[in-house]
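Z., the sequence and structure:
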Amino acid sequence: MKGKFIVIEGIDGAGCGTQTEILKERINALFSQPVLHLRYPDYNDPIGASIHEFLHKKFYISPEIQFLLYSINMLKDMDDIRSAQVKNRVILADRYFTTTLAYQCLQGFSEDKALKFSKLFNIIKPDLVFYLKISADTSLKRKKKEKNELDRYEENKDFQRKISKKYDDLAKRNVFARKWIVVDGEKSIDEISDEIFSTVKKYLKI
């Protein structure tokens, strides 16, 4: 059996990073092989650095170029993901290609082209995507509390509202995943983490 690939998704401020860290620790406590933990965008390479500058308004790029940059930022990890699957390790990602399907496709990049691209370059589909659903108001409130300077997406409440609807649509259609699971991201951190872990344990049959 291949190792399972789990992604945690949501609009800005949904708590993807927090829940990914908690789930990683819980899974690591159960298995001898550690989780392969990924985070996107990955700012630790030149492509990620360019994405960071774009998000912080150093320059503007079209949705098409955005899509390519985000995708390349993930493609570098495909061999590591395949290797982890073969070794039956759990792969856990804080956002993934599903984020790009939401953010860049909402801005006009064709979802059909995006999915064809994923097949052409063998971008690996996750088994489970947990979508932490929060309101645009909650998103803005949390991000303002978290940091002083918001990026071009975080500061735009109307954009977050539209992104939330796009995620709703992706989840409803189970796009680019074996299964999407919607989680109420307005709940407490502990309530959310317990709900996610309970589902993961059933899925991993532990």
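DSSP finds nine helices and five strands in the chain. The mean pLDDT is 96.

Let me know what you think.
H.
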